[in-house]
Specification:
about 200 residues, 9 strands, alpha/beta, seven-stranded mixed beta sheet, TIM Barrel
Length: about 200
Amino acid sequence: MPTAEATSPPPDSGPVLRVAQVVPRTEAEGPGVRFSLWVQGCALRCPGCCNPEMFAFERGTVMSVESLAAHVLATPGIEGVSILGGEPFSQAASLADLCERVRAAGLSVMVFSGYTLAELKAQARPEVERLLATLDLLVDGRYERDQPESRRRWIGSLNQVMHFLTGRYSPDEPRFTSPNTAEMHLVEGKLIINGWPELANRLRP
């Protein structure tokens, strides 16, 4: 997935998202095999973030929600979709459109946000509430590089919390209590390390 110059979708393509990268199949970003999507743009800019190239809002590739939904639904054997960034709630309206489509197809939805759930609710933005309503799992809170998490899977730092927003998953499931993991993927000639921010930072040149 390109990460530099943005491209424009057709004018009649409907809602769009600015996307940093896609890994269609991963087990390092949530329960089961998941389609993972990193959105572009983040105002929080946590020190030590493993994706600083995703801070700038003007970068990434502009893609239609329709094409992304089609890509997700055409990916065989996935349990759900995980959305990271960047900051997903900076594009809440378009992500709500995408997540409503994939939930309707029976897939689960997990989002990683630098905002806490309380902060998101305090914003009182309809698009934020709409996106929250589509989520099965939310991992919230700023990434704290001085508090790396190694015991809870899919969590970057000790302060972050996983919220079980529906009954689809339970914190008692063994796969939620296993150690953190990382993966490496070669996508269009680009090495992508995902799943464990501290390890990703150490492995990057």
